[in-house]
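Hypothesis: this fold can be encoded by more than one sequence.
Test: take the structure tokens below, design a sequence, compare later.
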């Protein structure tokens, strides 16, 4: 697994539905990049001037919405993850 540093967050992207509402299957080339994913790891937060870490707005297990082209894609043990700044997360789904 990956342990993010600072204010970084590791996200497991959710797979897009491969079928339309009408029942047609979509080829891989027509799928859009996912913008939702599950948080699998969070860093300790950015170090403040007083030496303490700020807390991040997400926790492991949260399902989040993030920027379509944000972050860095990495593959670990055959799974694709995205590492991004906590500021690049737009919302937490509840």
């Amino acid at each position: 697994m990956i342990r993010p540093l600072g204010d970084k967050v590791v996200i497991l992207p959710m797979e897009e539905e491969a079928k339309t509402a009408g029942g047609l299957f979509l080829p891989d080339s027509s799928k859009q990049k996912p913008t939702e994913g599950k948080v699998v790891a969070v860093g300790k937060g950015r170090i403040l001037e007083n030496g303490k870490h700020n807390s991040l707005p997400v926790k492991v297990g949260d399902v989040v919405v993030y920027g379509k082209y944000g972050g860095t894609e990495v593959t670990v043990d055959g799974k694709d993850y995205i590492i991004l700044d906590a500021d690049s997360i737009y919302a937490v789904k509840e």
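The chain has a mean pLDDT of 85. The beta strands are 8-13, 36-42, 63-66, 72-76, 79-85, 89-93.
Hypothesis status: open.
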